[in-house]
């Protein structure tokens, strides 16, 4: 198309009944460039923090397998990607000047001819979301590590995963994945991330607690070197150290490495061992056996079992059974459906450990319950039940 002259521009303004005095003197005349096809460009709306990541030369990664909804990850955060449609056409004009820039530059020419390089009717919107980490445990649980002498490990056909593999399979940022590997006590063996088989883990923990007992060490000061020397004839040194790191807090005193054993975590593991073989356990009997099973000097308390076991106060006598939060669905609605399938009415205290991990950044458990459950009073106690009929 021919370039417009100032006279043509003024005539157009007059036809449009616009007062030129109210407009900036500079006029953009737009024309479509030869490559201005739609669809080749994707627009991504970034919050300032993510812009800063890119400007600092770091990269953003889109993660997800074919059947998953894509997420975008920075180094330490995960975002849901959603397409937002706009009613106005968005035009890409390289070198386009904003009104502020035009005002600041008095020499800016009267008529600016710009070519449109592309256009779009939508853009990607990012919303901070919880990293999708359930799959991490699921992948590693396909082939738990049973120790170096296990026949199963030599013949296993399951995949093993390096950090790189997990980054390509898990929809979470690198920092979130590495943190979660610590949370689930994964262990790097020959370059691959593994989860210890529960029986094997308990066997290792038993070696350590029995040694502490026989040496009469205080539970707050277990020496690493002595543990490794005493137990290396039974298990590899790195496995002994891994168990101490999983069940203790490491510290250095006078140049020597010690561990303070974590009472709550050890009591919890012993409870899981006792409960895993029973459908339901008489509560008072369980409490007695449980206290006897933990190392001397440790005190068992039911609140150590949050998100691991549930007490049924309505049965006579009261019972306790295993219900692990990590076995529940990751999706909010499915999680609530499962919980209301297990128990029709929940108190907030009982349900909290099973939904706490679903809370978004600033969301409270109360807000989550308001959305997915309805409340009523039962014998003077507020309880929650499903908003929908559970078939």
UniProtKB/TrEMBL annotation:
Family: Belongs to the DCC1 family.
A GO CC term assigned to this protein in UniProt: chromatin
The organism's place on the tree of life at top rank: Eukaryota
Cited Pfam families: Dcc1
Coiled coil start-end: none
GO biological process per UniProt: DNA replication; maintenance of mitotic sister chromatid cohesion
Keywords: DNA replication
Gene it is expressed from: Dscc1
Protein name, entry field: Sister chromatid cohesion protein DCC1
Spans through the membrane: none
């Amino acid at each position: 198309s021919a370039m417009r002259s100032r006279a043509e521009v003024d005539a157009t303004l007059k036809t449009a009944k616009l007062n030129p005095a109210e407009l900036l003197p500079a006029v953009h005349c737009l024309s479509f460039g030869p490559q201005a096809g739609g669809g080749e460009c994707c627009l991504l709306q970034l919050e300032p923090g993510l812009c800063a990541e890119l400007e600092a030369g770091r990269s953003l990664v889109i993660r997800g397998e074919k059947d998953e909804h894509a997420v975008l990850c920075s180094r330490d955060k995960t975002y849901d990607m959603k397409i937002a449609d706009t009613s106005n056409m968005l035009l890409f004009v390289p070198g386009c000047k904003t009104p502020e820039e035009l005002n600041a530059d008095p020499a800016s020419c009267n008529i600016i001819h710009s070519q449109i390089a592309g256009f779009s009717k939508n853009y990607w919107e990012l919303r901070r979301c919880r990293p999708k980490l359930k799959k991490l445990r699921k992948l590693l649980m396909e082939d738990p590590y049973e120790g170096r002498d296990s026949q199963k490990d030599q013949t296993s056909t399951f995949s093993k995963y390096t950090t790189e593999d997990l980054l390509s399979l898990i929809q979470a940022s690198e920092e979130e994945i590495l943190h979660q590997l610590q949370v689930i006590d994964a262990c790097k063996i020959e370059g691959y991330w593994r989860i210890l088989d529960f029986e094997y883990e308990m066997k290792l923990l038993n070696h350590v607690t029995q040694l502490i007992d026989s040496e009469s060490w205080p539970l707050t000061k277990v020496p690493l070197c002595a543990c490794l020397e005493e137990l290396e004839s039974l298990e590899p040194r790195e496995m002994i150290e891994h168990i101490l790191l999983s069940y203790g807090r490491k510290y250095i005193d006078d140049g020597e490495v010690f561990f303070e054993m974590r009472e709550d975590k050890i009591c919890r593991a012993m409870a899981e061992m006792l409960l895993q073989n029973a459908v339901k356990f008489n509560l008072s009997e369980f409490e007695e056996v449980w206290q006897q099973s933990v190392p001397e000097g440790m005190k068992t308390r039911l609140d150590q079992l949050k998100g691991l076991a549930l007490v049924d106060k309505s049965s006579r006598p009261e019972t306790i059974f295993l219900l692990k939060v990590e076995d529940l669905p990751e999706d909010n609605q499915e999680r609530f459906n499962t919980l209301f399938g297990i128990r029709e009415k929940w108190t907030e205290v009982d349900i909290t450990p099973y939904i706490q991990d679903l809370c978004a950044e600033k969301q409270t458990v109360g807000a989550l319950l308001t959305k997915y459950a309805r409340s009523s009073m039962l014998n003077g106690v507020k309880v929650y039940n499903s908003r929908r009929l559970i078939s």
